[in-house]
Backbone:
């Protein structure tokens, strides 16, 4: 049974120092270089012997420095149950499926959510405990980790936020706190091929977070993802049904979309496996699809043609270069850079045979995109038919 100090460590802030001679908290900082050269680096460095010094994560126009918390002594304290987990980003597309799966499998689930006007009551209704915390405020994190065995990190920044705020600064603070609090396992979701695109801020930050976690001393699992099936509903299925424009590109990019329910199920299998400790896994769906193929599938299942607006990749590139000229549009440019990668001539997929074997999973149990969308369109078209029937019946009585 894992154990932990009964009392909280000193609250972590953006600049903390030595407390009681037991733990060393060093500074966390982020700076952006506005120079046009690409020689600045996103990196973290540490003077601690437990980390590789001066690890450098590629080159692009953002510079950050951070040092991890070093826990030098952990005494016996309050026992922690292996079933106690904290889900960060629990209200998101993937996070909510992780919460539901965890509850179905009998875990004690705590969800870290930001304070909001509309509380996440659906998480409480499911049986989870909801605690308020904000990765942008490191001092709010330690209290959420008390009594937790495993952290599952599904969080990412909101579209209106600078990418580095949550996805780097917040994640570094969370990992530091997890180390200081003696968390037994940390699961981090990343992006497939993030190590191959240092020119894209979001992907480079994901890669740097992977390395930061790997060198933190925590027991971890990094899971890289290719794409969610759920995202296709709002992007293609709904606009086609509502006769609205569907946006696509002229690039032959192929993405192996995966159902978030399958991602959650495989995550818990990996979490319980002793063979997956301190490993990097990539989850991909059964087949990689182009945008044109997804639209064609939705058209066939919906029984109607899509109003497709094609955006050439060259336009995306020009728009990103233009927004780079102004400091207040830098974050827009960062996100356009990610869109540009998704619109390039590449495949977001990996062979899954070895992963299925490692986890003891049958490929036949993984939902295909055809079945996922067929189920969606069958249900939604039936509801639309019922609504029309009720409307006609009302007209008769009137």
Residues:
């Amino acid at each position: 049974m894992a154990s932990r100090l009964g009392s909280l460590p000193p609250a972590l802030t953006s600049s903390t120092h030595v407390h009681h001679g037991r733990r060393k908290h060093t500074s966390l900082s982020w700076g952006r270089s506005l120079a046009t050269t690409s020689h600045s680096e996103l990196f973290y460095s540490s003077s601690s012997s437990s980390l590789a010094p001066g690890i450098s994560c590629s080159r692009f126009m953002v510079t950050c420095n951070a040092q991890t918390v070093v826990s030098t002594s952990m005494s016996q304290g309050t026992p922690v149950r292996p079933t106690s987990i904290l889900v960060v980003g629990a209200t998101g597309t993937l996070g909510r499926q992780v919460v539901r799966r965890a509850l179905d499998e009998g875990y004690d689930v705590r969800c870290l959510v930001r304070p909001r006007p509309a509380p996440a009551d659906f998480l409480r209704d499911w049986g989870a405990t909801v605690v308020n915390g904000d990765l942008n405020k490191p001092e709010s994190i330690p209290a959420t980790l008390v009594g937790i065995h495993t952290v599952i990190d599904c969080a990412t920044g909101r579209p209106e936020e600078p990418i580095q705020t949550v996805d780097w600064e917040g994640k570094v603070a969370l990992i530091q706190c997890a180390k200081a609090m003696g968390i037994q396992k940390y699961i981090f979701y990343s992006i497939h091929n993030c190590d191959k695109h240092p020119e894209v801020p979001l992907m480079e930050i994901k890669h740097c977070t992977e390395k930061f976690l790997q060198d933190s001393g925590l027991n971890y699992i990094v899971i890289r993802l290719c794409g969610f099936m759920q995202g296709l509903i709002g992007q293609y299925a709904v606009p086609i049904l509502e006769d609205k424009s569907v946006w696509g590109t002229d690039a032959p990019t192929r993405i192996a979309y995966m159902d978030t329910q399958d991602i959650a199920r495989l995550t818990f299998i990996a979490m319980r496996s002793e063979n997956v400790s301190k490993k990097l896994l990539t989850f991909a769906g059964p087949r990689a699809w182009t945008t044109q193929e997804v639209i064609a599938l939705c058209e066939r299942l919906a029984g109607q043609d899509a109003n497709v607006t094609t955006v050439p990749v060259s336009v995306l590139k020009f728009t990103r270069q233009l927004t780079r000229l102004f400091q207040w549009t830098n974050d827009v440019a960062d996100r356009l850079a990610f869109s540009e990668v998704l619109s390039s001539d590449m495949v977001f997929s990996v062979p899954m045979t070895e992963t299925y074997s490692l986890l003891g999973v049958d490929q036949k149990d993984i939902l295909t995109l055809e079945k996922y969308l067929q189920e969606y369109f069958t249900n939604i078209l039936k509801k639309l038919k019922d609504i029309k029937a009720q409307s006609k019946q009302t007209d008769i009585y009137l």
